[in-house]
Amino acid sequence: MRRTALGLAAVAALGWPLVAPKYLVFLGTLVAVNAIVAIGLNLLSGYTNQLSFGHAGFLAIGAYVAALLTLHVPALPVPLTLLVAGLATALVGLALGIPCLRLEGLYLAMATLAFGFVVTEAITNLDWLTRGNDGLRVPLARLGPWALATDAARYYLAVAVAAAMILAALNVAATRTGRAFLAIRTSEIAAQASGINAAAYKTIAFVLSAFYTGVAGGLFAFVVGFLSPDAFDVFLSVDFLVMIILGGLGSVLGSVAGAAIVTVLNDSLAGFQAFRPLIFGAIMIICMLFMPGGLAAMARRKS
Amino acid sequence: MSGSALAHVIVSGLATGCIYGLVALSLVIVYNATRTVNFAQGEMLMVSAFVAWSAQHTAGLPLLAALACGVAAGGLLALLVERVIIRRALSATHWDVLIITLGLSLVLRAAAGVVWTNEELPFPALFSNRPIALGPVRVAPVSLGVIGASLVLMLALVALFRATRFGRAMRAVAQNQTAARLMGISVERVYAGAWVLAAVVGAVAGVLIAPVTFLSTKMGLIAINGFTAAVLGGFGSMPGAVVGGMLLGVIENLAPLYLPTGIRYSVPFLVMIAILLARPRGLFGRVERRKV
């Protein structure tokens, strides 16, 4: 049953660009990118209970690193670019995560909120590097001799990366590290008493989360083709939170489902900008009141 | 820069700081009673200001009555929110309530945009903006008015917390919920009361700042400054919230004089990061013991 579902999902994902119109292929690419961010955020907020309002900042760092790298070193193949973007963002995650060990809950949320704001301010003000508010045009991603010029090509790139990262996250979740994360979420003190090095695991979660988001940022840069700091505001961070709350805190596949729903919803509400936050806010409230654990918990209860 | 000009900058910084202090107080009042923070505090204050605007423009009430209407509407909205949404989540973790209020802030902001407007509106001022000479120093009456009104409200809060039964009940719940319940205090009523009181304090801050910043759906963002002020003073401490607010107001007004002007809007964030990294419990905060 599970295997058939997985096979069907794989066939659908691979066949999508062959049957869907161009715009929907682009939307599918965005879903893949957002799914990676949602998993990254879930590893931090869902698994270790460290609420982050600053993931748009991580996404921005990944995106700008990838874009600038491609501008200055055009020969670099795209997997390496994405890897560098992820690692650079992970380094920032480490630098932010260690001082943030002293903070929890609310304070952490505010510190990450401030982090996100400082990142966009920095991008705006470092205009000799990032072109600030004028925006940065991202060159095409290159894989050896090929340039990924079509929507379908970029779609396959994003889906391949997303698939690899979903598998990796499922593996992390199933191992000692994942169990340690969940133990910290349930009770940090009890986890420590059971011999879990909470500080180390919380830092790992921060770094891992930043890495995921950085890679997604790199993909985002190539998919959108144009970067400017105002795209990475705090409301984007809130969108990511909506994804994991809807999908289910502490669930990898739930993150993917949440990312897909929020991305498609976001797109179909493009004509009703005024109502968008109304609906997203309502989703947050309703999920918290009536379906804690999100879609993942619902699916678990069904089966 | 001359001494009197500096004094002018500091006084107007203190005025903004009083507003931040009031917003910080409203956050702290809810926090002390329920141990959660209301992320929608800024948006609730924004709704109060819009109601006051409507009461004057559409219903044609005199300004003071309109402002009172706005403040009362804020209290009512808080009561409604507490009863309908927050109380259901009382058994939930603080995390959940945090997310719920975050969702609420999105909903309120969007709803205000739909009901009223997403444009900026001028808001009628109680106090004039034109500077007057006060001895050698020139200050704007609006600064003095804001400082005066805030101080009156703060003193009223002190009296409420020290001298009334309800205030003592709130302090008791803040100290130890179980013990307070055993003493016959209705903790639920204190929760609701804290939400209403916080909304009223926030609403006063809202109608005081709206003439300066203009009325808009974005004015809820002032809660970030309020939060920074509360953290600066040590979250949970009421005198800390006021002092933190004033400090932040003055820093924010002085910073552009000595640093690049673009920095003004980053000031609350930079102050917040600095204080969280160096002294997460703020200037007056105590370390709380945690239990499993």
Question: If you had to describe this structure to a student in words, what would you say it looks like?
Answer:
The complex is a heterodimer of chains A (303) and B (292). With 303 residues, chain A is an all-alpha fold. Chain A has one domain (17-232). Helices cover 77% and strands 3% of the residues of chain A. Chain A contains 14 helices and four strands. Chain A has helices at 2-19, 22-48, 55-72, 78-100, 105-125, 127-130, 151-174, 176-186, 188-193, 198-224, 234-247, 252-268, 276-290, 294-302; strands at 136-137, 142-143, 146-147, 226-227. In chain A, the strands form two sheets. Chain A has a two-stranded antiparallel ribbon with strand order 1-4. Chain A has a two-stranded antiparallel ribbon with strand order 2-3. In chain A, strand 2 and strand 3 form a beta hairpin. In chain A, helix 2 packs across helix 8 and helix 4 (78-100) runs antiparallel to helix 10. Chain A is globular. The N and C termini of chain A lie close together (12 Å). The model of chain A has no long low-confidence stretch (mean pLDDT 89). Chain B is mainly alpha-helical. Chain B has one domain. Helices cover 70% and strands 2% of the residues of chain B. Chain B has eleven helices and two strands, in the order ααααββααααααα. Chain B has helices at residues 3-34, 41-57, 63-84, 94-115, 141-163, 165-175, 177-182, 187-213, 222-233, 238-258, 267-278, and strands at residues 132-134, 137-139. In chain B, strand 1 (132-134) and strand 2 (137-139) form a beta hairpin. In chain B, helix 1 (3-34) packs antiparallel against helix 8 (187-213) and helix 2 (41-57) runs parallel beside helix 4 (94-115). The longest helix of chain B is centred in the N-terminal third of the chain and has 32 residues, at 3-34. Chain B is globular. Chain B starts with a helix and ends in a 14-residue tail after the last helix. The model of chain B has no long low-confidence stretch (mean pLDDT 86).
